[in-house]
Each structure stands twice: as C-alpha cells, then as structure tokens.
Amino acid sequence: MSASSVCPPETIPADVGHRLAAAGVEGTPERVRALSFGKTAVRLGGGAGFVKLACGPFAVELARREAAAYAAAPPRPPFTRPELLGFHDGGDWAALWLSSIDGTPESAWRALLPCRGPFDGAGATVQPLSVVLDVMVPGNDPSSSAASLRRLLIEREGDRAIACERAHGDFLYWNVLRRRGAPPTLIDFEHSLSIAPRGHDRLYWTAVPLLRRAAAMGGAEAAGRAMGLLLRLTAGPHLAATFLLHLRARLEREQAAACRPEDARAHETQWRARQLELIGHLLRETLR
User: Fold this and answer.
1) Which helix (H) or strand (E) holds 165?
2) DSSP secondary structure string, 222-244?
3) What are the tens digits of pLDDT across the range 230-271?
4) N or C end: fewer C-beta atoms under 10 angstroms in the chain?
5) Where are the domains positioned within the chain?
6) CATH fold for domain 9-101
7) How far apart are CA 216 and CA 68, in angstroms?
8) Taking the CB of residue 32, how many other CB atoms lie within 10 A of it?
9) Strand, coil or helix: what is 204?
10) Structural contact between residues 122 and 165, judged by C-beta atoms closer than 8 angstroms
C-alpha cells in the first residue's frame, strides 16, 4: 500500500483498530502502511496525529527507545520535533502516538555538506571508553565478534576519557523534514543515544551516505577512500573504530530482524550486507 493511499474503513486491518483502542489513541485510521521489522505506520484522520505500531521484540525495543527520547529535552534550535501525544507499552507490542507533521525530506545533496548536529553540546559529559561502548555497542555475549573487537579496542587505546553528548542516532537527510517558512522538523528518534562521542550526529550525517556509496562501488579503492574519510572526520582511530562498531552492531541487528521473506529480498537488506562487508574491512584496518 502506498503512503498516499487512503484506506476505506472496511479495509483497515481489524488488528490495527483493536490496538489503537487498547492504547487509548483517539482518532480514526485514515492511512495504514506496513514498515520493516514489524512496524506499522498509521495516519489518523482530522489531524489527530500519527501512530507507530510496533510488534515483536526488535520493533518494541525501538519504540521504547523513541518514547524515552521524547521524554528527554528536545533538540536544539533550529530543529523542532513532533509532540508525543501518548505511548502504550503492551509488552510484546507498543504504540507511539505523535502529533501530525508535514514536510518534505531534506535533499540527498545536503549530505555532502557539513551539518551541525541537533544535540551538539547538549548533556555534555566525559565518560570512559568502556561506558561509551556499553551504550553504543550493546550485547552480552562475550564470545561474539563485537565483544572481542571491543576488548581489542580498549586494550589498544586504554579506557580513555571520551567527551560525550546526546545524539539523535539516525541523523540523516531523510529524517529532516522541511516546510516553507518553518524550522526543520526532526523525526524518527528510535536510534537515539543517551551518550555518544561528541560530534556523533555530525559524523553520521556525512559518513553513512558515503559509506553506503562506497559499499555499492566495492573494491579496494572505495574502501581506502572511506577509511581516509573516517579518519579525517574523527579525532582519532579510536573514535573511528567506535563509530564503525556502533554502525555494525545496528546493521547486524537489523539483518537479524529482517526475518520475513519479503524483508530478506528487500533492497535495503542487500544494502546492509554490502555495508557490513565494508565495515568489517574498515574495522580490521583501524584495529590492526
């Protein structure tokens, strides 16, 4: 179903209506669109807002993270964000109710230009590298490759102090909506981070689109350019490695959550596989 299609009442899945009622959402579903990882987008009629329904462990975890981000302080001007109208946690499902927003995603070309992060300087702290990695590279399996790389990074760099701040965590051009005569609206806080190395969002804005491009191109030359870019954009190899570990952990979890046949065949799934291959190469280069 396209994002612009309006659903006649008889075509709204009964499950959607039941969950909205259970979550205390006031409004009539007007448009329903299936998203990846067990998420469903529901636009309510009459300007009553927008609801993200999440089903399954991964989707619910993202919804909880986004609700926590909305409970925290908003991004710094000029960025604004939707208003959180309600959140319902049903255990194995969740509903996030937001105010209506309109706008056009920022141009992809803007990713080629440096952009100040929406939380630059917000909640500034200094944290040991081990604490930063606990937040950015979650996981309790000591035998995993991520755990071994974390240990290698700390052995190499020591548990050094890292200047930190809050981060949106998915600061990309398609998550910034523009409207004529209005400040930019920041959406999709489901990957927000309570602490991240200072400048993480600014790095994410530039580095992720270029890493996607390098993964598409393939080859040693593209990998070398990507490595040079990361080292120029960060204050040292330890920050480049932290960024790569974080990005790899996210992509791996998304791949694992793409369990439906249609997800496995999706274009984004293939993109993630290519990016993971590139990131693995860059990590080996950074930590050797």
Assistant:
1) strand 161-167
2) HHHHHHHHHHHHSSSHHHHHHHH
3) 888 888 899 999 999 999 999 988 888 875 656 656 778 888
4) C
5) 9-101, 105-287
6) Phosphorylase Kinase; domain 1 (3.30.200)
7) 34
8) 20
9) helix
10) yes
